[in-house]
Every structure is written in structure tokens, then in C-alpha cells.
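[Automated response] Your request has been received and processed.

Submitted sequence:
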Amino acid sequence: MELLDINELKSLAGIKKEPCISIYMPTHRVGREVEQDPIRLKNLLRDADRKLEELGLRRKQIDSMLEPGEKLLGSAEFWNHQSDGLALFLSQDESHIHRLPLSFEEAAIVSHRYHLKRLLPLYANDGRFFILALSQKRTRLFDATRHSIYEYELEDIPASFEDFMKFEDPEKQLQYHTGTGGGGESGKRSAMYHGHGVGMDDAEKKEYISRFFKTVENGIDKVTAEHQEPLILVGLEHYIPMYREANHYAKLLESDVRKNPDDLSEAELHDLAWKEVKPYFERDREGYFKKYKESLGTGKASNNMEEIIKAAYARRVDCLFLEKGRHILGSYDPDNDKLVVYEKEEPGAEDLLDFAAIQTILAGGAVYMMEEDEMPDDNPAAALYRY
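Generated structure:
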């Protein structure tokens, strides 16, 4: 899964050229729908082709821009390893292809910027989190939202305690694997470790498992280094404190799920984790919500769209509430501080709410996508300022 980290989002947001192609579509991991996904992409590429032709581009230019997408159509390997959604960002000079844990409505958008608003649920502060399933048999990291879960393909991390022992201490691994060797009577093995590390006493076993978790933490840190999403642990009661000792990730939650993840399906794992994570999101959102209400009229909050757009670009927005499904077309020229709102789609138009959200996220602010009846007031956008 080619995830979008914050640095690549920043790079995509900074690109402004004519034209930029953004293609979104739902994908499927299993079942007969997998066979339909290449057809969906083919139709979206045809739609983008038509729009590029209407802009007056030559056939050679169009074919060159769409080629990265066309190459995917016949790749069975690609379509057999999907997540919930596919996003393609194509231009004359580059292409970005991402399989993401978020289902999208089909769309082919051609503009002077990449259309990024559909990615916001991956970065908004009301639902994306990590799940780390701790186990000696297999340690797994999941990227999750309130509606989805997807497992990372981890690199440079031992898949199990047994794999770790092969490289950490081959002699002890042999004892682990065969059940032979000294270091204590097997009948006195601690039930705490369920027989793993046969031939080691309890102190040795705990030391090796601690080192295993430290190795896991170092690998996980490479994945989460550029992220601010909360991380929740799922594991047996005696493993979780051991991992916490090794942890350096600032967003590791105090709450956890103390069950053996090996006994849980992905759906069960997700449901149990979400029950623990949900209050975290609600607490932060309610805090921002209350502060917005208190600050409105003081100059530290606003529901005026033009003010919000300009403040977001100036990195002043600390928290942004946006109404789901709303689009406001227009353009903003920061060099001349000029904002124009269009009544219909025109060349050079972009979604101004998209622009404000991306600018807020890149500045480290919080963004919440909300239903109309959840918004603080009767406006499509509301912002709390840093100053």
C-alpha cells in the first residue's frame, strides 16, 4: 500500500501547473468486484482523455500523461493487491499512484492543481489512527479510520519472536525451536510466556522479548515518524507494559485493548480498537468546539469564508471545521491577496474549502469534516485561529 505521508501531501499541494489530473475510484480486495476495477479505471482515464482534449492538448501530450494509468490496466499483480480506494495524480512531468484505506466515489478531475479534498479523511482529526497488534507469533501494524482497517507491509521488522531469535541469538533460537538445551526445567516454565523460549529461565525470556519489542518499536518508528495520529496497542496484558517501555511515539494512547490479537479477526480488532480510540477524538473535537464558540467575535475565530481562506494560507488556523460534501469554487492569488468565488466551474477554478483544509493540515492544524447539523453555526466553514 503506497500511503501518502504528510511530506508527499505537501509536495502535491504545492504543485500548480496546467493541467493536473486527479483520478479517484473505489477498489476491492477480494471477490468478483476485483475484476471490475480495471474497467472502472479505464473509463475514468477515457473521461480524463476527453477533458484534456477539450483543453486543446495534442494527442501525444495526452497519451504521455495518461500512460502511467494505462500501464496499470493489464497488471493482474497490481489489481490483486488493493486496499479500499485508488488515487492517481498525473501531470506532464510526474505520476503518483496510491492504494489507500479509504473508499472514493469515482471521479476524474482536470485542473491547474491536484484535487486533494477527497484525501482529507486520512488527515482529518476525527478518525485516523494506528493499531499495533503485539504478539510473539506475529506483530502487525494497521492504518485505520472509523470505517476501515488496512495492514501495513512492514519492512526490516521481524515477523515473529522466532524470526527475531534467529538473528539475535541462533543458539537460543535452536532451543526455542526444538525444545532442547539447558537453563531450567521445562516443567517450571512460566505460563506467562506459553512455552516460548524453551531452555531459558523467566528473566532471560523477558529480556529477549523486551529486546524483540524494542526492535519492533524501531521499525514502527520509521513508519510513524511523520505522523501525528494516535496509536493504540492490542496485546496480552503482560506484553503491553513491556512495549510501552520501548516506545518513543508521542501519540501512543494510555488506553489499550488487552486481548490476544491472534484470536481476533481484522473486523474484531478494528471494533475493539475504535471503542477505545473514539473518546480521544471526541474529547479533542469538543475542546476545539467550545473554544471556537468562546472566541467568536474576539478576532480569534471566524465563520467568514474569505477570512478563513487567507488565514489558512498565512498558517494562522489552529482548527478548521468543514461541512462534508460542500464545495465552493473559486481562486485565491496569495501574491495579490485576491480571492474570487465562481458561480460555476471555470478554467482555473479550485475548491476553496479544499485549499483551506490542506493549508491547515500542512501547518499542523486540526481539521474536522462534519455533517451540516454538526457544524458550529450555519456556515460551511468555521475556524479557530492561533493568533
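Summary generated for your ticket: Residues 266-295 form the longest helix (30 residues). Residues 173-197 have pLDDT under 50 and may be disordered.
If you did not submit this request, please reply to this message.
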